[in-house]
Amino acid sequence: MTHEFTLSQIATDHAPALLNREAVLNRAMKTVGYEFTLPDSMLVAQAPKGNGASCDRILLKELERAGMERMLGLCSACLPMHSLDSLGLALLQQQLPTGLVVELDIATCRASQQIFVEQAESLKDRGIRFAIGFDGHIEPGDVDIYQHAEWIVLDLTQPAEISLSPKVNQILQVCPHLQPFVKNVVLQEEFTELLNKSPFSRPIQLFHGPFVVSRVAASEDRPLQGDRLRVMELLNKLKQESDNGKLADALRRDPVVLFKLLRYANSPVTGLRTKVETAEQALMVIGRDKLYNWLTVLLYVSGESDGLEYALLNDSLVRGRLLELLGADKLGKQHANALFLTGMFSLLDVLFHKPLPKILSLLTLPDEIKQALIESSGPYYTFLQIAYACESGTPQELEEVAEANGILANDINVRHVEALVWAQQVEQEG
Questions:
Q1: pLDDT tens-place string over residues 382-394
Q2: DSSP SS3 for 278
Q3: Mean pLDDT, to the nearest integer, of 34-52?
Q4: With 70 as the cut, is the pLDDT of residue 363 above it?
Q5: Is residue 346 predicted with pLDDT exceeding 60?
Q6: Contact 36, 83 (CB under 8 A)
Q7: 86 and 60 in contact (C-beta within 8 Å)?
Q8: What is the C-alpha to C-alpha distance for residues 84 and 52, in angstroms, rounded to an integer?
Q9: pLDDT reading at 399 higher than 80
């Protein structure tokens, strides 16, 4: 029997919960979805041991209020669930656009296998897909459970004998449709090893974890790549050169950069009604500030690539857009461009493998951006803190920062989802 719960039946006595996300990447390092969770503090407060259903309901409620359905069709939304009862919630019973993935532990499914199979068959008809977490064991009936999933989830926070167990191959052998999804990869070296030398009988297809933004040893002497250096020179010219003709000449001297710039400028996400075909038109129609913003995108996709640039670009776009939306609401629209750049530049040290102050010294930037990124202070820093929190959990102090600045958790969640949608549109159209 399918049990359906409406949102009005979900407990509303919990404090507003900020959503955390983790980007889900494919083998080409493209962001194909996001896993959403509640902060650890909320999980502890709302889910006494053995009672995860309340957390599932809060997560689904916050996602619905934030407008998660806008993402679906552009990318996937992966939702870890703690209870099979949660599969009856109204949000999951709707006919949703493609892209909703429910994650469950194998132990949860074993406890009520028949209920899981019935629910899975029903929800798959509504376009919902399943990812099942492996726990290091294979018990009678497990294969029937994995047959209803598209991914087998290996969590590196578990011991290696569980997360990378060769027993996974026994399941993959009898479930040829199943794809490995490795979560919580911490180091870039760890990712490279898993990408190139899968411990399983088939390549790992999906990854997530902090390895994308992990900072390797920075080098003061590491040279800047020529393509990216030319983009930085163009960025400075936009700030320093008053003559549009000279700026257009500088853009034309780098046809590859100009081609990429015009492609981004003409994507639907910019909202332009007139097609931009020349450097002069770009300066006239887009304006210097927006042109500067699009050039910052090219910093990530110019030069030699090892693939991680695409993942960094997505994180930077989300940060930039989130800062722009939240900060402009509080500080005024005149700060929008600078807030966007604060987010976009916050990962340049990871991109260049150089100290951030060294990189920012090469650019002509407002003091407020440097204060936020280097000194952890100034009017933009609060919004940068919030962006960080959406990626890595929300300590109580940060919730207090948001409240002190009059920013509600629901507003952050709504803007967060808006930023995710926008970043996906930019990457797909560009």
A1: 999 999 888 876 5
A2: coil
A3: 70
A4: yes
A5: yes
A6: no
A7: yes
A8: 10
A9: no
Helix 288-301 × helix 308-331 angle, to 10°? 150
Give, to the nearest 10 degrees, the angle between helix 226-240 and helix 255-265. Answer: 70
Beta strands at 179-183 and 151-155: parallel, antiparallel or unpaired: parallel
Higher pLDDT, 123 or 400: 123
Gap between the Cα atoms of 276 and 294, Å rounded? 13
Considering 16-30, 99-113, 300-314, the range whose residues carry the highest mean pLDDT is 99-113
Degrees (nearest 5) of the Cα angle 80, 81, 83? 160
Q: What is the pLDDT of residue 218?
A: 53
Written as six digits, the tokens of 343 are 């987010």
pLDDT tens digits, residue range 145-190? Answer: 999 999 999 999 999 899 999 999 999 999 999 999 999 999 989 9
What pLDDT score does 267 carry?
Answer: 77
199, two tokens: 């411990």
pTM for the whole thing? 0.90
Beta carbons of 126 and 102 less than 8 angstroms apart: no
What's the start-to-end Cα distance of the chain, in Å?
Answer: 46
| Mean pLDDT of all residues belonging to the chain | 86
- How far, in Å, CA of 127 to CA of 96, rounded? 7
- The pLDDT value recorded for residue 416 is 96
User: Do 130 and 102 contact (CB within 8 A), yes or no?
Assistant: yes
**Residue for token pair 């180091």:** 187
- Residue 120 CB burial class (10 angstroms; 0-12, 13-18, ≥19): buried
C-beta neighbour count of 4 within 10 angstroms: 11
Type of residue at 335: H
Give the tokens for residue 257. Answer: 């950069």
d(CA 113, CA 109): 5
Residue 380 binned pLDDT confidence (cut-offs 50, 70, 90): very high
User: Which of 86, 81, 76 lies closest to 424, judged by CA?
Assistant: 76
CB atoms near residue 159 (< 10 Å): 10
At a CB cut-off of 8 Å and minimum separation 6, what does 63 contact?
Answer: 19, 36, 77, 79, 91, 413, 417
**Residue 9: other Cβ atoms inside 10 A:** 11
Distance, CA of 31 to chain centre: 7
Residue 429 · residue 268 · CB < 8 Å: yes
Closest CA to 57 of 95, 89, 84, 79: 89
If one compares 405 and 14, the residue with the highest pLDDT of the two is 405
In terms of C-beta density within 10 A (0-12 exposed, 13-18 middle, 19 or more buried), how is residue 394 classed? Answer: buried
Between CA 251 and CA 258 the distance in angstroms is 6
Q: Which two three-digit tokens encode residue 213? A: 């933004």
